[in-house]
């Protein structure tokens, strides 16, 4: 590990970046499609959940307004 005060040369930095880039594992097409479908399903479920929560709070606020 380099010392705090020592500077990494631009060439060494590029070498380190290339070394790290070689370690990256990209998902396959099937994994990307599967994850995208999962994200879409979760988005629909959560949007319906928050719609329900928002509607419930709106109904409670309207009810409280009738008491005032």
From TrEMBL:
GO terms for CC?
plasma membrane
Gene Ontology MF terms? protein transmembrane transporter activity
- The name under which this protein is listed is Protein translocase subunit SecE
List the NCBIfam families: secE_bact
Q: Name one Pfam family in it.
A: SecE
Per the record, membrane topology reads: Single-pass membrane protein
What's the name of its gene? Answer: secE
The cellular location(s) given in this protein's UniProt record come to:
Cell membrane; Membrane
What family is it from?
Belongs to the SecE/SEC61-gamma family.
Q: Which Gene3D superfamilies match?
A: Preprotein translocase secy subunit
The UniProt entry, under InterPro entries, shows: SecE_bac, SecE_sf, Translocase_SecE/Sec61-g
Q: Which GO annotations describe the biological process of this protein?
A: intracellular protein transmembrane transport; protein secretion; protein targeting; protein transport by the Sec complex
Question: Does Cell membrane show up as a keyword for this record?
Answer: yes
Q: Which organism is it from?
A: Qipengyuania gaetbuli
Function comment: Essential subunit of the Sec protein translocation channel SecYEG. Clamps together the 2 halves of SecY. May contact the channel plug during translocation.
